Amino acid sequence: MLHPIRFVLVETSHPGNIGAAARAMKNMSLDSLVLVRPVSFPHAEASARASGAEDLLSHARVEQSLAAAVQDCGMVLASTSRDRDQYFRVLDVREAARTALAATQRGPVAVLFGSERTGLSNVELQSAHALLSIPANPAYASLNLAMAVQLVAYEILRARLEAGDAREGQDVERLPGGPRRAALANGEQMEQFYTHLAQVLEQIDFRDRTQKGTHLMIRLRRLFQRAEPDENEVNILRGILTAVQHRRRRAGEH
User: Fold this and answer.
1) DSSP character string of the chain
2) Fold held by 187-252
3) Is the pLDDT of residue 34 over 90?
């Protein structure tokens, strides 16, 4: 079974952009839309700009947190037009589309789009496995939200066509599966792992020695996000952490 590719719009301020994004998605045979804290939705302008994609709006999920929007996703890609630090893996939009398509065999996939004015914050990027970059004029790289959605959706459809997965009369959202592999750890499982890891680091007094005292977990999160562990691998890592905790308890008994 292949899983859907979900487009997640975070704090969209203009309802027209939501409608235009829905239309762009339907053009490219995508139908999973999630809105995180939209400023105004539902809205007449969103319906007008959807222009035939009102069904996507009526089925769109609205969440109050990004964590809730991606908690079941095994792969999260975050679109950005800004330079970020070197610890993020950055994929060109075409490569990102192929990566997303491959990941649908192992779990739901989310593509994040930030607000029109500020994009995605560093905190919102914590759930991302990689950044998605759309090549543009360096002097004017900022794209309209709906335009960015259209370009990413197009590249996903193109990736399907290249893979021979979209033929006449075939639903391109349901592709033939490849070799069976363990499902990627989803957002909720990864957050549980990070909480467990932070507890063990505290217990063994492995602390962040930087001035702000926040860099260690950020670096570790990005390390494991780049690794894209599956459910079994996360269970192994948590088993190691539990073994460390048990060993410390036994040592403390003497």
Assistant:
1) -PPPEEEEEES---HHHHHHHHHHHHHTT--EEEEES-SS-S-HHHHHHHSS-HHHHHT-EEES-HHHHHTT-SEEEEE-SS---TTS-EEEHHHHHHHHHHHTTTS-EEEEE-BTTTB--TTGGGG-SEEEE----TTS-PPPHHHHHHHHHHHHHHHHHHTT---TTS-TTSPPP-S--PPBP-HHHHHHHHHHHHHHHHHTT----SSSS-HHHHHHHHHHHHH--BHHHHHHHHHHHHHHHHHHHHHHT-
2) Helicase, Ruva Protein; domain 3 (1.10.8)
3) yes
